[in-house]
Each structure stands twice: as structure tokens, then as C-alpha cells.
Write a structure and sequence with these properties.
Length: 851
RNA sequence: GCGAGAGUGGCGGAAUUGGCAGACGCGCAGGACUUAGGAUCCUGUGGGGUAACCUGUGUGGGUUCAACUCCCACCUCUCGCACCA
């Protein structure tokens, strides 16, 4: 379906070429021009206001997909628009180059991850350049470059010195066949995604970033990002982050155990229900379990159950619909509040890593406890009565988790439950039974990966001195290039003696390197800051450049990174601030999350077979058409339904724009300076000019206020339609020439952020020197935008009955009178009592009548 | 289950602060040009009715002179979280 754009033949020696819209010629011409003139290079200019626009950089998987295209089109509009608004714009691009697919490709195709990645980068860079994005390519970076990750290693060392990095044993998904750790999302139905072998839990020594130390600040700043609503972060991303951090306030309490010298410490957010705690449950991993059940009749059974649970992968383990299973430990605790003897249980739904790994169980006021108690016949005790029908233990079919008044709660009986929470915590602290405690759902960030293709962790283990960071002078710890990949997929690093064997930075003795690499989310947690000074060698950041450009004024990317990447980057920013590298609390002042690209009702994916390749579109229609359609079909934050007809429509529009040159050929034969008089003689000139200025206003506001490019483009389409309908009063008349020239120039300027190539071409053909991107954004004249005549809507009892053309600025009474005098209106009003006349200035008159 | 968002013609979508519902595009129909048109240009296009007019933004109610927009209840879809004590 290649469009046939062989328009009519032009007589008189002009080549056909010059008059038909031939995107490829135009686009390559201007891409070359921009490159040769270094058009988009950014340099710090303290006298100019800066604007840092960033799109989420891609993983170099091989080729650009439509999701990237949409993301980068949105970003490019904003970057180009801001540039024309006079900002000094930084708009960089780079590569999130470490990661698993490179390693998998290496094993599969017997290539090197580095060369595979290099090849992909080269190809994708060409694709992006072919799209005409206004990147400053001199700032391109790749995270796999030792000159990049050396600073990551430095930051790691500084974090280590500050206690923000630590090592601990933690359970991981492990595939025994592939001999590697799997991320949670790589475990499918309990099996390895690659070989389907059952995944086991394995305890491994891992490095962790202490993100929990920043939990409160990350939470607090959520509100500040939100406070700048409209220009800040989308509400739902903030909500997701808040939920992820999951702050909960409660209390930790010791429950003594009968015949045992250590108490069990539990955490609860519901101290108001503590008098109803009729049992205690431990997680299977609870450290006291073995000791507690030692010698009990069912010891072996319980320990076997606990061991079985340890082996279950985290996904299954924490699934909400998993059946609750437990065993009585055979021992009893004392509820210190009631002095009652209550049984101790072990159950699969209690998680070792949250709170204290032990809970008090209140079946009457917690649904999970209720189900568990019913299943195992554990007694219930109501301690909160809601309004209305009183709760009875025997007849309850579900827990009452809501509000109420305390009963059976000693001195707290009669108190409202919200009030009781604080009172009981205070009581607890006074008695020394426990203390107030804040818990987070957020866990420290495990960053060790048993993988080759990542940034090496700069740690050595010395036989004499123990665990030590690599000395700063020895950075970077470079990933060895010469490698043989074991066929089973495990990392080659541990077996590479040249790499592993090193000397201790302290005693000079024999030492071994850590052979894990860092999670690739670490690289993407600071790349935005490195873009301000990619070539700086004295440290990770050039303080002058960083403080000039940061924070990112507008970040654009997919919603799928709403939690992990954005939370990590926020955390890392605060860490870098506290290490003295940056002076910055938050990395991204504003965030725009674009919707997915959909085709036939589903997200584009290889498995669905509904993928559209940008290359095919570019060769068929050109980059400008692809850009235009991705921006026109829906507003950025919504999903975009791909439509071949819609793409053709966009192409048709651009051809139509280009043919304007032909229509106004006779006017534009002699480009010259046109002066526009304040008052125009001809009505059609006046009207065209008014529409030009109204369009400038509309497009400016749509971009500026809400990034609604679809309506901005629609307005330009209307202007183009008006130009087609426009007939000059007399050919080549000066006034007409001037008006048309302004109109065509405005079309080019207004289009330039969206479809820069054709805009440049138009601009040049209108007789201007090349470089539309350096032009100031057009301004509208307020007095021209005002209409002299308006359509006044006249309603009777709220129903539209007439539209009348009136002059815009008479006294209010006049519009009312005109409305009442209209024939069509008189018909409805005659013989009735006019109760009220509502007048909305310059818009509407509503006459309220009664019969 | 909890949280967030959405529901408007045949389709993508517009209506910015409660004030003309359906901008713009696609599709469709008619016309012009043409040997031809799947190119281009013009016109029309929510539904019903010859018409005056009636009706219409997921459903039902409410507030208002006036509701796609605000309030209450419900239905459907999408996304996120989901045993976190």
C-alpha cells in the first residue's frame, strides 16, 4: 500500500521533485544539516534558563520498537518546543547496556555480550537518528563502558564506608540446572523460565543497599512531588510508590513463653485488639522455632513442615490464595494483658522478613486469623463491638475488622478503638512489655547478581583482613573481556583466576575478588546525572555542570517503571547527595508516563504477532508521518491504538501541507519582507489572520499546559483546512501576500516540534534561512484573537432554540434584548411569564419561562 | 479484596473553570476533475423524523436556569497492589 504521490506534472521546467512531498529526501537532507551544524549540542549557559528533558534510555535489545518511538516522539516535542521558547535545552540519549539478554544471546549465538551489545547500539543509534530526534549525541553514554561504571564502583565504596551497603545471607530463587539465581519475574509457576526445572530457595551471601534507611524521606517527598500537581508526578505513580514503601505504625510486644527463658516478640498495628489475642503464630523460619519445639512430641513433623516452606519460592509463598496451613508447637505463651495461657502455632502465611516474624492472632478482628482459627478450632474472643447488632463468637462468619468500642479489655473497655490504640501502646511501654514501632513493607535492595554482564562489585576478600573495598586508585574493576561462556549459563567470573586472584589493598597479601555483578537497576539510578558531564574524569559529576542542569525538569517514560526504577533513582539521588556528590533531593521534578502502544486491542508483542516495525513505516511514509501519528492518535498518557489508516491519514495531511506551497505558488514567487498593516482591507484576509493567531494561541496552550499534542495538531489541521478554502481577493495583492506568508510561516513554526523535517523544508522554501529550530516560538496578538462577531447561543428553559450572530462587545443588556427579540425565540416565550434571564457574557443567554 | 484510572458516533478521540456534545482524524456517502482513480479537491455524515421537532455522553437517582463535567448508588473494562499482621 505504498501511496502514490506522483501528483500532477508541473510545466515550465520545474522538476517534478521540487513539488511533491518526498519525505526521504527532505528528512535525510535536514538530518545531515542538523548534524553538520551540531544543532542540538548543549553547553552550560548560566545566563539562560535551562531545561533538562530526559526520556528513559533504552536497553539495546536489537532494534527500536513502537514503544520507544512513542516515548521519544513525546520527549522530542517538548525539547524542541522549549528550545524555541528560549530555554537552554539538554536532551541526551544513552544505553542501558548491561543485562541478561546479552548473556543469553552470547550463549545461544556464541558471541560476546560486549560485541552483541555494541552492534545493537550502533543499529539502534542509526534508527533514532533516522527519526530526527534532537539529541545531543556528543553526550551519548553506555553503562557498560568502564568509564561509566567506574563511578558506580566509587559510589559503592563510599556507600560501603557509610554503612549504606552491607552483606547478608538471604533466600534467592535458584535454578539447579542453570546454576544461577533467577529474579522473581523469571520464575514461572515454580519453574525456571528457561529450562522449567523446579526452582529452589537457596541462601546466598548478597550485597544490599540500605534503601530502608531512606524509607521515611522517600515517603515524605512523595507529597512534595505531588504538591506541584499538574507539573509534578502523576497521582497514581505516587500512590504506587507509597504503597510499595508501605509504612505502618504499630507496636512490638513481648509474649512470655511458659517454661522457656526467652519471650516471643510480636508486631501488631492493632494493639486495640490485643485482649482478643487467643494464640501466637511463628513464621516457619522463626529463629526460636527449633529450640521451642525441641523435645515436643511432633518436633519432627513441625521441622519438616518448616523446612518444606523454606524451599517454596517467594511468589508461591506469598500468594494470597494459598491455603493457610499450620501446626501447634505444643507450647504456650502468656498474653500479658489477659494473663491467659495461649497456644503457639507455626504457619505458612507468616513471613519471616516482616515485623518480627511472629504475630499475635486475633481471630475475631482479623480475617486471616479468623479463617485459621476456624480451620483448627482455636477459640475466639470478641474485644471490639461495632454499632448495632452485638458480635457473638459462636455466630460470627467473618472477622470484624472495622471500628467499634472495646469490650472484655480490662481498663480499656468502653473506649473507642482508634483512641485505644494509642492508650494501649502507652500502657505497654509503661509496663516495659514492648515499644512503639514503625515498619515498612519496603525491603533493602539486594543488588548482587551471579552474572557476568554487569558492573563488578568492587570488593575483595583477604584471608587476613577480611572483606574490604577495592582502593579507589585501582578503579575501575574492569570486567575481563576474554571469556569462555559455560554452556549451562552460569557466570564465568568465579572460575577466572586472573580476575579473581588479586592482592589485598590493606596488607598486600593474597585476596579474592567478589565475582558478583551489580543489578542493572543501579546503572539506571544515576545516568541522568552523568549526562550533565559525560566526559568529566575527576569524579562522577562535574559540580558546576550538575548544579546547572539538575534536576531533570521533565522525565518521560513508561508506566511500567513506576515503582522500581523511579524509586531506586530517587533513593540513589539522596545517597549521592549525602555522599556530597550532588546537591539534590529529588532527581525528576516532573514525570510524564506515556501509555502503551496497542494494536488489535492488545499490547504489541512478538508472541501476539501484532508488532509494527518502525523501519517499515519510515521507509513507507517517512519519519515525520510516524512522529505525527504517534502524537496525534491520543494524548500521551493514554494508550495509543495503532491504525494503518490513521498513519495514512497523517501522511495525507503532511502531503497536504506540502502542497500549500503549490496552491500559493503565485503569491510566493518573490519572497520578500512583508509588512502587515494593523487594519486589513479584505474580510477574508482578516479572517485568515485571526485564525492564524487563534491557532498559535491554541497550540501554545495545549503544549504548555497539558502536553495534549493531539489537540494541538488538530488545531493546525484546521488552519491548513482554512488555507485551502482561502481565496485571495486579487492575485499577488500585497495584503494577501503578507497574510498568506504569515500563515504559512506560522504553520511551519507550529509544526516544527512535531514534524521537524517538513517544517524546516517549508521554512526554507518560504524564503527563510535554514534553521527553524532556532527560531523563536511564534507569539499571538491578543487583539487579533478576539472575535468581532460571535455566535450567541440562545436557550429557552435550557434548550437550545437559536444561534444569533452578534457583535462581540455591547453592554450585557443588549445581548439579552437581541435574544428576546429573535423570531425563533419569541415563539417560545410569547404568552409565558419570563421568570429569569441568565446571561453568560459572549456565550449564551438562557431564558427561563413558566407557562 | 484494596487502590487508581476509564466508559462519549461505525473507529481513534475533542469539549481547558458547570454554559452550543461529537473539534480533528479515520471510515463511509455524494459530487468535481479524469481514459481511469485506490491520487487530489469540494460537500455531507450521532440516532429517529418529509418536516417542525424529538432524542442522545455506561445504568438509576439527585443538585442546578443549565450536567460528558458536581453529588449518591450501581454496572462494565483496564492497570497496579494483593496473606505485610
Amino acid at each position: 500500500m505504498i501511496p502514490n504521490y506522483s501528483g500532477h506534472k508541473v510545466a515550465g521546467g520545474k522538476t517534478e521533485m521540487s513539488n511533491k512531498y518526498s519525505p526521504e529526501n527532505i528528512e535525510l537532507k535536514w538530518q545531515r544539516y542538523w548534524e553538520e551544524n551540531a544543532s542540538y549540542q548543549a553547553t552550560e549557559a548560566p545566563d539562560k534558563p535551562k531545561y533538562y528533558l530526559l526520556e528513559m534510555f533504552p536497553y539495546p535489545s536489537g532494534r527500536i520498537h513502537m514503544g520507544h518511538v512513542r516515548n521519544y516522539c513525546i520527549g522530542d516535542v517538548i525539547a524542541r518546543y522549549k528550545r524555541m521558547q528560549g530555554y537552554n535545552v539538554l536532551h541526551p540519549m544513552g544505553w542501558d547496556a548491561f543485562g541478561l539478554p546479552a548473556e543469553n544471546a552470547a550463549i545461544k549465538h556464541r558471541t560476546h555480550p560486549a560485541s552483541w551489545t555494541q552492534k545493537n547500539i550502533a543499529y539502534m543509534r542509526r534508527q533514532l537518528q533516522r527519526m530526527g530526534y534532537s539529541y545531543d549525541w556528543t553526550r551519548e553514554l553506555s553503562t557498560a563502558d568502564p568509564q561509566y561504571y567506574r563511578w558506580e564502583q566509587l559510589i559503592f565504596i563510599k556507600m560501603y564506608e557509610r554503612g549504606l551497603v552491607y552483606k547478608k545471607k538471604s533466600p534467592l530463587n535458584w535454578c539447579p540446572s542453570c546454576k544461577t539465581v533467577l529474579a522473581n519475574e523469571q520464575v514461572e509457576g515454580g519453574g525456571c523460565w528457561r529450562c522449567d526445572t523446579s526452582v529452589v530457595q537457596k541462601d546466598l551471601e548478597q550485597w544490599f543497599f540500605r534503601i530502608t534507611a531512606y524509607a521515611d524521606e522517600l515517603l515524605k517527598f512523595c507529597d512534595e512531588l505531588h504538591a506541584s500537581a499538574g507539573s509534578g508526578w502523576p497521582e497514581r505513580v505516587i500512590t504506587m510508590q507509597k504503597n510499595w514503601i508501605g509504612k505502618s505504625e504499630g507496636v512490638e510486644v513481648d509474649f512470655p513463653v511458659i517454661g522457656f527463658n526467652k519471650p516471643i516478640r510480636i508486631f501488631t498495628t492493632r494493639p486495640d485488639t490485643i485482649y482478643g489475642a487467643t494464640f501466637v503464630i511463628l513464621a516457619p523460619e522463626h529463629p526460636l522455632l527449633r529450640e521451642l519445639v525441641g523435645g515436643e512430641p511432633n518436633e519432627e513433623e513441625i521441622l519438616a513442615f518448616a523446612e518444606g516452606e523454606r524451599q517454596v519460592d517467594r511468589i508461591t509463598r506469598t500468594a494470597a490464595d494459598r491455603e493457610k496451613v499450620g501446626y501447634p508447637a505444643g507450647r504456650y505463651a502468656i498474653n500479658p494483658y489477659t494473663n491467659q495461657r495461649i497456644p503457639i502455632w507455626v504457619a505458612n502465611f507468616v513471613l519471616p522478613e516482616y515485623g518480627t516474624g511472629a504475630i499475635m492472632s486475633v481471630p475475631t478482628h482479623d480475617q486471616r486469623d479468623f479463617e485459621f482459627a476456624k480451620k483448627y478450632g482455636i477459640p475466639l474472643q470478641v474485644v471490639i463491638q461495632p454499632q448495632g447488632e452485638p458480635l457473638k463468637e459462636e455466630t460470627m462468619t467473618a472477622a470484624h475488622e472495622g471500628e467499634g468500642v472495646l469490650v472484655n479489655s480490662d481498663i480499656f473497655s468502653g473506649m473507642g478503638n482508634e483512641e485505644a490504640k494509642g492508650a494501649i501502646i502507652e500502657y505497654t511501654e509503661n509496663r516495659g512489655w514492648g515499644e512503639r514501632k514503625v515498619n515498612y513493607r519496603l525491603r533493602d535492595w539486594g543488588i548482587s547478581r551471579q552474572r557476568y554482564w554487569g558492573a563488578p562489585i568492587p570488593i575483595v576478600y583477604c584471608e587476613r583482613c577480611g572483606t574490604l573495598p577495592v582502593s579507589e586508585a585501582d578503579l575501575p574493576v574492569v570486567l575481563p573481556a576474554k571469556i569462555e561462556f559455560p554452556a549451562d549459563g552460569h557466570s564465568p567470573l568465579p572460575e577466572m583466576e586472573d580476575f579473581v586472584n588479586t592482592t589485598c589493598p590493606k596488607c598486600g597479601g593474597r585476596a579474592a575478588r567478589d565475582t558478583d555483578t551489580m543489578d542493572t537497576f543501579v546503572e539506571s539510578s544515576w545516568y541522568f546525572a552523568r549526562f550533565t558531564c559525560v566526559k568529566y574524569t575527576a569524579g562522577p559529576f562535574d559540580p558546576k555542570a550538575a548544579s546547572y542542569w539538575l534536576p531533570v525538569d521533565q522525565y518521560v517514560g513508561g508506566i511500567e517503571h513506576a515503582i522500581l526504577h523511579l524509586l531506586y533513582a530517587r533513593f540513589y539521588t539522596k545517597v549521592m547527595r549525602d555522599l556530597g556528590f550532588l546537591e539534590l533531593d529529588e532527581p525528576f521534578s516532573a514525570l510524564l508516563t506515556q501509555g502503551m502502544v496497542i494494536k488489535d486491542g492488545a499490547k504489541m508483542s512478538k508472541s501476539k504477532g501484532n508488532v509494527v516495525d518502525p523501519n517499515d513505516l519510515i521507509s513507507e511514509y517517512g519519519a515525520d508521518t510516524v512522529r505525527l501519528f504517534s502524537l496525534f492518535a491520543s494524548p500521551p498518557e493514554r494508550d495509543l491504538e495503532w491504525s494503518e489508516e490513521g498513519v495514512e491519514g497523517s501522511f495525507r495531511f503532511l502531503s497536504r501541507v506540502f502542497r500549500l506551497l503549490e496552491k500559493f505558488d503565485f503569491i510566493l514567487i518573490q519572497p520578500k519582507q512583508f509588512d502587515l498593516p494593523n487594519t486589513l482591507k479584505h474580510l477574508q484576509n482578516k479572517e485568515l489572520r485571526r485564525q492564524v493567531h487563534r491557532t498559535i494561541k491554541k497550540v501554545t496552550e495545549d503544549i504548555e499546559r497539558r502536553f495534549h499534542f493531539n489537540t494541538a495538531i488538530a488545531a493546525i489541521m484546521e488552519l491548513v483546512n482554512a488555507l485551502y478554502l482561502y481565496e485571495p481577493p486579487a492575485a499577488a495583492d500585497d495584503e494577501a501576500q503578507a497574510v498568506v506568508h504569515e500563515a504559512l510561516g506560522s504553520v511551519a513554526l507550529l509544526l516544527s516540534p512535531f514534524v521537524p523535517h517538513i517544517a524546516e523544508e517549508l521554512w526554507e522554501r518560504l524564503g527563510n534561512p535554514p534553521g527553524i529550530f532556532e527560531q523563536p516560538w511564534p507569539k499571538y496578538q491578543d487583539d487579533l484573537v478576539m472575535l468581532e462577531k460571535i455566535t450567541l447561543v440562545v436557550q429557552v428553559n435550557g434548550k437550545l432554540r437559536a444561534r444569533i450572530e452578534v457583535s462581540a462587545n455591547p453592554a450585557p443588556e443588549e445581548h439579552k434584548t437581541m435574544a428576546l427579540q429573535d423570531d425563533r425565540i419569541r415563539k417560545y416565550v410569547e404568552g409565558k411569564h419570563i421568570r429569569k434571564v441568565i446571561y453568560v457574557p459572549k456565550k449564551l443567554v438562557n431564558i427561563v419561562v413558566v407557562a
